[in-house]
Amino acid sequence: MLHTMENGVLSVTVRSLGAELWDIHTLGKTSVSCLWDGKPEVWPRRAPVCFPWCGRVEEGWFQEEGVRYEAGPHGFVRDLEHTLAERGEHWLRFRLEWPGDSRRWPWAFTFETLHRLEGNRLTTTCTAVNHSTRPMPAQLGFHPGFRCPLDPARGLEDYAVRFQRPEAPDGTDLLPLTRGLFDQDSICFQDLRSAWVRLEERGTGRYLQIDLEGAPYLLLWSQPGIPGFLCIEPWSGYPGPGHDMAFRPGVVLLAPGKALCRSMMLTAAVE
Questions:
Q1: What mean pLDDT is predicted for residues 40-69?
Q2: How far apart are CA 193 and CA 214, in angstroms?
Q3: Using CB atoms within 10 A of its CB, is residue 4 exposed (0-12), middle (13-18) or buried (19+)?
Q4: How many CB atoms lie within 10 A of CB 100?
Q5: Rounded CA gap, 99 and 110, in Å?
Q6: Which pLDDT band holds residue 212 (cuts at 50, 70, 90)?
Q7: Given a cut of 90, is residue 55 above it in pLDDT?
Q8: Distance CA 143, CA 45 (A)
Q9: Which of 89, 96, 112, 198 would bridge with 207, disulfide CB 3.0–4.6 Å?
Q10: For every residue of 195-210, which 3-state class applies, written as one string?
Q11: What is the rounded distance in angstroms from the CA atom of residue 241 to the CA atom of residue 210?
Q12: Are strands 187-190 and 83-87 parallel, antiparallel or unpaired?
């Protein structure tokens, strides 16, 4: 089911499956669609949340107390139906209750996703609480895909990723987008000093900005050739070798009753 909220500046639609952002567009004189539209032949998702782990698991499985669990990329909350628990004029709160099982994930948890609009900013806050009787390993990441180019009349060469501080591989604050940039898969940044990163349209002053507070890892990803979208992904953790989820880089071991909370703030300066 789709749920929409507007504030006169932005319109945001969220799908209850995965509590996933489904559409973001401006409400000014010229409506600009910011989010990738999920073409199934290219990349069918739009802005999934990664939990209880980020990225791939070695050989597609992990082990806990001698039991083997199959594990696809980026966890599984993105593939489950979330309940719209509450809503206001400019916010939507979704809730998922996971009882723990012997096939996917043995720990019980609740997972809440709050999407809140304020001006041209959209903040998504995810909170996971461990309801098991033993510590639960957890990583949480955001995987939004943005239209690139934002303007269909422009080409890829008109866009770049800009960091607040020099973080690009060449020592500058600017990473130009090129067709071959993701031929070898994603680009990972660790221990960034920048408070934000932008998808920037050159010469116009237009950009989409993601704040990076609380995200020690940042991934940039698209399909080879960048066929219409760019993912800017702030993660709390990262894949690592082995089959013990407790030893993945950036993992948090949540004690019973404790919470992991992370937010992603998007600023859409595209009008």
A1: 97
A2: 12
A3: exposed
A4: 13
A5: 8
A6: very high
A7: yes
A8: 9
A9: 198
A10: CEEEEEECCCCEEEEE
A11: 29
A12: unpaired
Domain range annotation of the chain:
2-269
Give the CATH architecture of domain 2-269: Distorted Sandwich (2.70)
Token representation of residue 26: 């401006």
Whether pLDDT at 28 is above 90: no
pTM, whole model, 2 decimals?
A: 0.96
**Token digits of residue 188:** 């990972």
Integer Cα distance of 160 and 149 in angstroms: 10
Say how far residue 189 (Cα) sits from the centre of its chain: 15
Q: What is the pLDDT at residue 190?
A: 93
As a whole number of angstroms, the distance between CA 25 and CA 9 comes to 9
What are phi and psi for residue 172, nearest 5 degrees? -105, -175
Are 135 and 253 in contact by the 8 Å Cβ rule? The answer is yes
